[in-house]
Structure of Nucleoside-diphosphate-sugar epimerase:
Amino acid sequence: MNGELHVVLGATGSVGKSVIEELQARKLKIRAVERSKTVKGIETIHADLLDFDQATYAITGATHVYLCIGLPYSALIWKEQWPLIMNNVISACEKAEARLIFLDNMYLYGPAPLSVPFNEKHTRNPVSEKGKTRKIISDMLLNAHESGRVKAVIGRSADFYGPNVINSPLYISFIERMLIGKAPQSLGNTNIKHTYSYTNDNGRALVTLALDDSTYGQEWHLPVSRAMTIDEIVVEINSVMNTNFKATLIPRIILKIMGIFIPNIKEVNEMLYQSDFIYIMNDEKFRKHFPDFKVTEFEIGIREMINSFKR
């Protein structure tokens, strides 16, 4: 472990923070990379990963690089910026001879409905524009590994939730509204099961993958808690908040109309297949490889998330 430098790109994001916490727990040397924010108590470099020179400067000296950044939720921005960022980070890691650990999501799988459950070998014919971009950048990284340019590993997260995570669907649609006395709203059927990843588990899992030589060149589904319906999730939130709400379904025609005027709603509409069908991610590969890894129970994770916003 001596001489290692772990560089976290997107260090103040939901999962980037958890990666840093795990690295700190393991007493590893850390560098945080952000466009403008600074991580207290940790060497922080400000860099725009769209610029190759800045990406190279940020990654210089690294042994392990965690690509955990998030871009605005826009299919157009993803299409324009993600391939450039991935190319710059791969090239910078190649130059530094650093290993690259990529936090990915599930969007590249398709067409819908997905297999129940779906694993890392699922068909990759995405139905969404954002999914097509995710497939492109995933392929870029795997090809770079196969060609010997970098040693890389991909950790794929389900929709995540956790302390202070404001971009989680469980916050936007449920907790945020319930905290101000409003009923939660669901984009899809409230009795369809779905899996979720806890951000602190994601951070621990990415570092676990990074430090195991045998994981590289592979794709791994990061661990999830048990599959739950929206109705079951609202029951758990009610239990923590001592409320008695029920989720209301937003009619699709209303979402389509709203999408005309509200860009973020338009971006969500192409992903609604995730709410229309059972969406259960298989994390068996990770659990078998790391049998001692403790996955946070949903009841514990959602309580921590709610309490973080109460504080």
Residues 284 and 291 are 10 Å apart (CA to CA).
